[in-house]
Amino acid sequence: HLAPGAPGTARGPLLAAAEVLALDDEEDDLEVFSKDTSLVEVNSFSPSVPISPSSMINQYKFEDGPELRDLFITVDDPESHITAIETFITYRVVTKTTRGEFDSSEYEVRRRYQDFLWLKSKLEEAHPTLIIPPLPEKFIMKGMVERFSDEFIETRRKALHKFLNRIADHPTLTFNEDFKIFLTAQAWELSSHKKQGPGLLSRMGQTVRAVASSVRGAVKNRPEMFTEMNNYMETFSQKINLLDKIAHRIYKEERDYFNEMKEYGPIHTLWSASEEDIAESLKGIASCIDRCCKATERRMAGLSEHLLPILHEYVLYSEILMGVLKRRDQIQGELDSKVDALANKKTEKDLFSEEIGKLEDKVERANNALKADWDRWKQNMQWDMRSSFTNVAENNLRYYEECLATWESFLASQSVDLHVEEDSEDRP
Amino acid sequence: MEDCLAKKMEITVSEAEKRTGRNAMNIQETYTAYLIETRAVESQSEGHCAPVDSLWRRYSEFELLRNYLSVTYPHIVVPPLPEKRADFVWHKLSADNMDPDFVERRRIGLENFLLRVASHPVLCQDKIFYAFLTQEGGWKEMVNETGFQLKADSRLKALNATFRVKNPDKRFTELKHYSDELQSVISHLLRVRARVADRLYGVYKVHGNYGRVFSEWSAIEKEMGDGLQSAGHHMDVYAASIDDILEEEEHYADQLKEYLFYAEALRAVCRKHELMQYDLEMAAQDLTSKKQQCEELATGTVRTFSLKGMTSKLFGQETPEQREAKIKVLEEQIQEGEEQLKSKNLEGRDFVKSAWADIERFKEQKNHDLKEALISYAVMQISMCKKGIQVWTNAKECFSKM
């Protein structure tokens, strides 16, 4: 089965909130992307492909108009694999595309979590100052969700789906070669390709350097803009973590409320069995409470489907962003230390000027890439927050409106009874 | 419909005051006194307000009044008092008798009690009740002088009767079952309602945290700032709204509680019937056995085994004179017994008749009141939903502007 549309894309509204957002917002987003030519990175920016056939759009039921999207990815069908050494889950990744660089227009592969990890690290390697979307965590400690429970697998599947789609939506990452291989290669092809890349040691080296640079403290030549970003991210990270906790707590309270309500309604039915005159009223109350109970359940589901995953994603994003800022600092640090070293050796300046030049370019590229991606990320974040919280508000509205209708109809039924009673009293 | 006191007199329990004093054991204690205000209704129609009489009473005096009424009118379903101690509380409410909210709800409950008594066709005419409302000093002595405590049936006696009665009126047996069921189901309902209230409180209050965090977050956002800030404000409003909502629900709970306690009053009437019926059955049994004894003595045949019969057989017969004397005594007793039985029978039938009349009156009152209470519960839910819709509509608008 195909997941209903790809959540998380900045270009189209989340399905649930589709009716809410004005079309001009969406158009603004599109404008931003088509004008965005400042990204110059390892993979060159290909000329944009003509607009995708509407048939593909219909298939995925996008509520808005035609998009610039030409790559459609879904992650579904988790399957358990048991070998002598381990048990793991694979997910089916289906890709549909009209891009020329893809040999075929449709691909179906199976990937396991490890493969996603590999992809993420390749992307980070290739684009150290781009904001790579978050992956779901390896193992969730809190919430007592077991490693292979259905709920855990489903949550992970949704997050993986989002991960790939966010990459597909990214103007630079979408053309990354490893990404293409991830989407198209058969299992054995991917294995052999994985072995080719820089090994574990080089990755460790990067980490060590990153740690070392952070130990050195704030980079002295850091442009004001990035200091502002750092400050912003520190506060943002704090707040988003709090919101994540609050949202989870609300979910828990709603669930506890639901559990008590389940017991509340039936007591009225029980009571009605000993009564005559008020039996109908009691049964009416019981049915109202039961309906409100179901409405609460729906409200909870809405929360766990939309807000909770988004907030969690942005908790992870805040960590990623702090990492990206550090890597930028590290790149600049390389330049700065080389410049410092050179300051003492006036005689060898010429020899190193080329090297310095290259480093300066590297820093400039890194800064530009980050700045552009940052702007894009902020736009997306604003968009995601707006739609998620609007969705929460709508969930609550729907809940209260349902309950209101239930109680009002009960009240109406009671007045009918009252009128009947009054009439019978009037009769001589 | 007879003119009951409630129609002639306005009764309110208007204030509650903390007092300290020495009790019967000369120990310092703190208690609450309630101000009862009364005003004759008739004179108001003449355009000027009648003067208000008032006096202070404490809960124990209300209890004394109720005990007096229960004993003096055992065939009446006597209105119950509000609870002595806070029961079925959910966590925010304190179980402390001195808590102002509890005192306030008790004040309303006591007023309700007085109004119930004042509108009862029989009870409202009671002099002691009238004095309770109007005579501050010497009321306690007045009550005790009635000697009602002596008329009270012992619990043990009543329990005994309940177990051993053979032919109670079926309607009372059914009523007893009904009151047991009523008590059980309302208790259960109140317990769960308290838990539901607790949870609902939690849901609303946690939303208040959104307000604080949104506000802090808005400080670092340029475009989203306003939307976040104002949305946060609405979350605060939402969180605060639960306090009034739940307080109103407490009044609903109190209405149910009254009928929970009424169940006990119903049972009391049933117990009285069983006691009277048992008494009657015992008297009849006694009479029958005396008649039998008489017959045995007269005819000389022993129909039933008795120790006396055995001993007289063993140790010699009585003289004819002794026998005659015995028969005479028995005949007198039988005569008395028959008269007593007659009057007991009459009493019993009168009791059943008048009790059942009051029970019918009670049933109508109960159905009316409970139905109204259920409707008021629905009204409260509707109001809560409307408030929720308003807040979330506002919040949605703010979110959409983020």
From TrEMBL, chain A:
<dbReference type="GO" id="GO:0061709">
    <property type="term" value="P:reticulophagy"/>
</dbReference>
<dbReference type="InterPro" id="IPR001683">
    <property type="entry name" value="PX_dom"/>
</dbReference>
<keyword id="KW-0653">Protein transport</keyword>
<dbReference type="GO" id="GO:0034727">
    <property type="term" value="P:piecemeal microautophagy of the nucleus"/>
</dbReference>
<protein>
    <submittedName>
        <fullName>SNX7 protein</fullName>
    </submittedName>
</protein>
<keyword id="KW-0813">Transport</keyword>
<dbReference type="GO" id="GO:0005769">
    <property type="term" value="C:early endosome"/>
</dbReference>
<dbReference type="GO" id="GO:0000422">
    <property type="term" value="P:autophagy of mitochondrion"/>
</dbReference>
<dbReference type="Pfam" id="PF00787">
    <property type="entry name" value="PX"/>
</dbReference>
<comment type="similarity">
    <text>Belongs to the sorting nexin family.</text>
</comment>
<dbReference type="InterPro" id="IPR042131">
    <property type="entry name" value="BAR_SNX7"/>
</dbReference>
<dbReference type="InterPro" id="IPR042130">
    <property type="entry name" value="PX_SNX7"/>
</dbReference>
<dbReference type="GO" id="GO:0035091">
    <property type="term" value="F:phosphatidylinositol binding"/>
</dbReference>
<feature type="coiled-coil region">
    <location>
        <begin position="342"/>
        <end position="369"/>
    </location>
</feature>
<keyword id="KW-0175">Coiled coil</keyword>
<dbReference type="GO" id="GO:0032456">
    <property type="term" value="P:endocytic recycling"/>
</dbReference>
<dbReference type="GO" id="GO:0000407">
    <property type="term" value="C:phagophore assembly site"/>
</dbReference>
<dbReference type="InterPro" id="IPR027267">
    <property type="entry name" value="AH/BAR_dom_sf"/>
</dbReference>
<feature type="domain" description="PX">
    <location>
        <begin position="69"/>
        <end position="190"/>
    </location>
</feature>
<dbReference type="GO" id="GO:0015031">
    <property type="term" value="P:protein transport"/>
</dbReference>
<dbReference type="InterPro" id="IPR036871">
    <property type="entry name" value="PX_dom_sf"/>
</dbReference>
TrEMBL record, chain B:
<comment type="similarity">
    <text>Belongs to the sorting nexin family.</text>
</comment>
<dbReference type="Pfam" id="PF00787">
    <property type="entry name" value="PX"/>
</dbReference>
<feature type="domain" description="PX">
    <location>
        <begin position="12"/>
        <end position="139"/>
    </location>
</feature>
<dbReference type="InterPro" id="IPR037430">
    <property type="entry name" value="SNX4_BAR"/>
</dbReference>
<dbReference type="GO" id="GO:0005886">
    <property type="term" value="C:plasma membrane"/>
</dbReference>
<dbReference type="GO" id="GO:0031201">
    <property type="term" value="C:SNARE complex"/>
</dbReference>
<dbReference type="GO" id="GO:0032266">
    <property type="term" value="F:phosphatidylinositol-3-phosphate binding"/>
</dbReference>
<keyword id="KW-0813">Transport</keyword>
<dbReference type="GO" id="GO:0015031">
    <property type="term" value="P:protein transport"/>
</dbReference>
<dbReference type="InterPro" id="IPR027267">
    <property type="entry name" value="AH/BAR_dom_sf"/>
</dbReference>
<dbReference type="InterPro" id="IPR034783">
    <property type="entry name" value="SNX4"/>
</dbReference>
<dbReference type="InterPro" id="IPR036871">
    <property type="entry name" value="PX_dom_sf"/>
</dbReference>
<dbReference type="GO" id="GO:0031901">
    <property type="term" value="C:early endosome membrane"/>
</dbReference>
<protein>
    <submittedName>
        <fullName>SNX4 protein</fullName>
    </submittedName>
</protein>
<dbReference type="GO" id="GO:2000786">
    <property type="term" value="P:positive regulation of autophagosome assembly"/>
</dbReference>
<keyword id="KW-0653">Protein transport</keyword>
<dbReference type="InterPro" id="IPR001683">
    <property type="entry name" value="PX_dom"/>
</dbReference>
<dbReference type="InterPro" id="IPR034902">
    <property type="entry name" value="PX_SNX4"/>
</dbReference>
